[in-house]
Amino acid sequence: PTYGSVSRYGAIAMASSLDQIGPVSRTVLDSALLHQVIGGHDARDSTSLPDPLADLVAAAKTGNVEGLRIGIIKELHGEGYQAGVENRFNDSLELLREAGAEIVEVSCPNFQYALGAYYLIMPSEASSNLAKFDGVRYGLRVLPEDGPMTIERVMGATRAAGFGDEVKRRIILGTYALSAGYYDAYYGSAQKVRTLVQRDFDAAFTVADVLISPTAPTTAFRLGEKLDDPLAMYLNDVATIPANLAGVPGLSLPGGLADEDGLPVGIQLLAPAREDARLYRVGAVLESLLEAKWGGPLLAQAPDLAGTAALETQEAK
């Protein structure tokens, strides 16, 4: 959803300028129904928008995209994207074109810097937000097994037990980026890139009503496969990070299965801030067209990944 359109009251903050609650469901209409219920102004959240929500459910039931301009983001497909992902993306474009949408190309040149900016802003804010989990004043408390019971040792034991490896990695990175002598070079520069990304969106939405791209450049990698290479994991966010930086709404839905590995491909739709209804309108139509093409719900086409993993584990034993 648009940043501030759904209350974050009750959520544990990671990065306050980025965090946004949103629905996860099996269909676009279900997402619209849930969003309609949880959205709207909340005085308990200082970032909550005062605007009343549009009728998102009605938008999801519109049933047509005729005359809408749908923009292909030049920088978010093509080179570096898996062939099967590109094929399913092109299938979606063709279906929307046949349904009466006008397909245009837009360029967002500063999106190439968005990933780096995000992974400076997000860890910096996470480092600040998670500092309150010290085992003394707030949250979990883990006592050292032996030795003196000092505040420092309680804090160390609590944070060692309570935070996972990825959280610790982000705290360390964020603390470094915010440290004296590095603030302007890292965090300050990243915020400037954020402004450039927002300007790219503003320009793109003058020629397109909705933007479209693959959700990720590849299909899913195996669980735990890239734990030793965080940068490889972060690169999979390259298409979704710009919307998060700019605070615009995004919707991801299944776009079919890649030819090479039979794994699901995601299609991402983006709209201007406060125009979430456009996403539900286009998303519901695309979902319907894809289901007609694939002969049923796309999630039903996905391989039984959990069962496969369990079988492989048994065979390994």
From TrEMBL:
Keyword Ligase (UniProt): yes
User: According to the UniProt entry, what is the EC number of this protein?
Assistant: 6.3.5.-
- Coiled coil segments of this chain: none
Q: State the superkingdom.
A: Bacteria
Enzyme class per UniProt: ligase
State the UniProt keywords alphabetically: Ligase, Transferase
Q: Which Gene Ontology terms cover its molecular function? A: ligase activity; transferase activity
Q: Where is the Amidase domain?
A: 1-279
Name listed for the protein in its UniProt record: Aspartyl/glutamyl-tRNA amidotransferase subunit A
